[in-house]
């Protein structure tokens, strides 16, 4: 009986995922028929209406209050609304990613995407050694590996697949068509990234998620756990590490920035100091978020 119950539960969960995916993908297919800017605007309007009614809104507002104790309730609510609008745009941008990312290195001033750090991309492409890029859940972080590919730079990206396997398959296929290699965030991912670096390849990762048993750090003055993976790989391979992020601009435009390579904190033996580097990554991400707070995912449990 217990075995039958487990099978039934598995079947019902699978059916739920399938139905959710069909509805979601059908909605995205309909949006695909619209001009990109109209579809994005429509999705943002809907999200700004529905977002405050979902349970995660309360978590987002609570996180914002703790991060910005000096802001009024109205200011906090406006940032939360901006967040929902940006999250909706991120979802729809998957559908139009081949149209939206129109940056051409030969004509850098003609498209809707501008890149700050072109010379850095070009220099890294010519270097015969491994590199690490990091970013956060801000703006359209999916544009970063697309930009690298545009410059002929192969970057293997560590990603966490959605819980819904049908939606995960759709996103993975979309990513593969315009990005470099993808490394699922699961058991064995660290070894896979290590092999890529060992072969002189490049890897990219998001660094602003809660990581159970991670390094104790702070973010917006609050204690949190941060993954030590990127600092440990940096220590092992002595890689150059670059910060990069992409924000949305008014008028349906985007700005991608890649910064100078980090000056890495080191211990008394000259090795990369893992806890201090984890904090360094948090501090840089916090700077990005403070400049554009409405473009970060405040509804996830970074601190909890």
Automatic annotation (TrEMBL):
GO terms for cellular component: plasma membrane. This is Lauroyl acyltransferase. It holds the Pfam family Lip_A_acyltrans. NCBIfam families: PRK06553.1 (NF005120). GO terms for molecular function: acyltransferase activity. The lineage of its organism: Bacteria, Pseudomonadati, Pseudomonadota, Alphaproteobacteria, Hyphomicrobiales. Keywords: Acyltransferase, Cell inner membrane, Cell membrane, Membrane, Transferase. One of its GO terms (biological process) is glycolipid biosynthetic process. The keyword Cell membrane applies. It is found in: Cell inner membrane. It comes from Nitratireductor aestuarii.
